């Protein structure tokens, strides 16, 4: 569904992406791993058109993402942001129904609220949570609200940006399980960027490792542990010694 070919992006003298080539198949969950500052978020933003690559091509269903009609293009995506990114001044249901209350996918307010409550229920939150404000929720509940918002408009493609950051191991496991269930139920194409190996093992069909601006390795999640690639082995086992040098 999504194809990247020799994608490059620099910020001044800092070459972040140096020729990324990657294919994300329709209906599969692709997880991109890599250390902090390796360009995972920049890659995601390039796909969404929030950052324009310096070179290479990115296509969605064969169409160049830089030349498509923006509203229709973005309407195909859902997004779970790393920090939740909930609007403090809006009630929970208004956050979940944000896209449904405006733009090309606008619904009547009553219908949007009903959909929001249904999606909240899908992520394990009771209907009375809908009337609360984000500040009244725990971190895990906020993450669930963000997930409900990501799926509210039934997107074809869902991006997850470090979905378990800041959560305790139990809640991280709950979020991983929800992501896996929802992506499977919806038949959505998913792309996750993370350095949390528990998330990788829970939600990935395929894994790609981004290092030094290129895809160092990619393959089925079941082959990740067996690959002899020294970069992957050092990363997934958290070893201090290896070809990846920690930034001090």
Descriptive overview:
Helix content is 32%, strand content 25%. The protein has 248 residues and is an alpha/beta fold. The strands form 2 sheets. Strands 6-7-8-3-9-10 form a 6-stranded mixed β-sheet, with helices on both faces. Strands 2-1-4-5 form a 4-stranded antiparallel β-sheet, with helices on one face. The longest helix has 18 residues, at 169-186.
Given helix and strand content, the structural type is: alpha/beta
What is the helix tally? 8
Q: Give the helix proportion (percent range).
A: 25-40%
Strand arrangement, largest sheet?
A: 6-7-8-3-9-10
Question: Termini distance?
Answer: 38 Å
**Strand percent estimate:** 15-25%
Largest sheet: 6 strands, mixed
Q: What would the average pLDDT be, to the nearest integer?
A: 92
- Give the CA-based shape: globular
Please give the radius of gyration in angstroms: 18 Å
Number of strands: 10
Helix and strand succession? EEEHEEHEHHHEHEHEEH
Runs in which pLDDT lies below 50 for 5 or more consecutive residues are none
In short:
By secondary structure, the chain is of the alpha/beta class.
Chain-wise SSE layout:
Layout: E1 2-11, E2 14-24, E3 29-33, H1 40-48, E4 55-60, E5 63-64, H2 70-74, E6 77-80, H3 92-96, H4 109-122, H5 139-151, E7 157-161, H6 169-186, E8 189-193, H7 197-203, E9 206-211, E10 214-220, H8 230-237
Parallel strand pairs: 3-8, 3-9, 6-7, 7-8
Antiparallel strand pairs: 1-2, 1-4, 4-5, 9-10
């Amino acid at each position: 569904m999504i194809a990247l070919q020799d994608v490059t992006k620099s910020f001044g003298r800092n070459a972040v992406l140096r020729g990324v080539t990657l294919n994300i198949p329709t209906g599969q969950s692709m997880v991109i791993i890599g250390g902090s500052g390796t360009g995972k978020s920049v890659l995601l933003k390039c796909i969404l058109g929030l950052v324009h690559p310096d070179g290479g091509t990115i296509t969605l269903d064969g169409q160049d993402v830089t030349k498509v009609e923006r509203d229709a293009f973005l309407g195909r995506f859902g997004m779970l942001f790393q920090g939740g990114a909930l609007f403090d001044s809006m009630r929970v249901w208004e956050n979940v129904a944000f896209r449904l209350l405006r733009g090309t996918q606008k619904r009547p307010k009553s219908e949007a609220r009903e959909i929001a409550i249904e999606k909240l229920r899908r992520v394990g939150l009771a209907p009375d949570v809908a009337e609360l404000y984000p500040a009244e929720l725990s971190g895990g509940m906020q993450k669930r609200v963000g997930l409900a918002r990501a799926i509210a408009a039934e997107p074809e493609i869902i991006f997850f940006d470090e979905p378990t950051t800041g959560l305790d191991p139990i809640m991280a496991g709950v979020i991983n399980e929800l992501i896996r269930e929802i992506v499977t139920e919806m038949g959505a194409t998913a792309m996750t960027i993370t350095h949390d190996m528990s998330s990788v093992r829970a939600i990935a069909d395929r894994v790609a490792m981004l290092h030094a601006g290129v895809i160092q390795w990619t393959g089925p999640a079941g082959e990740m542990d067996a690959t002899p690639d020294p970069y992957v082995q050092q990363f997934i086992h958290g070893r201090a010694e290896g070809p990846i040098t920690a930034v001090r």
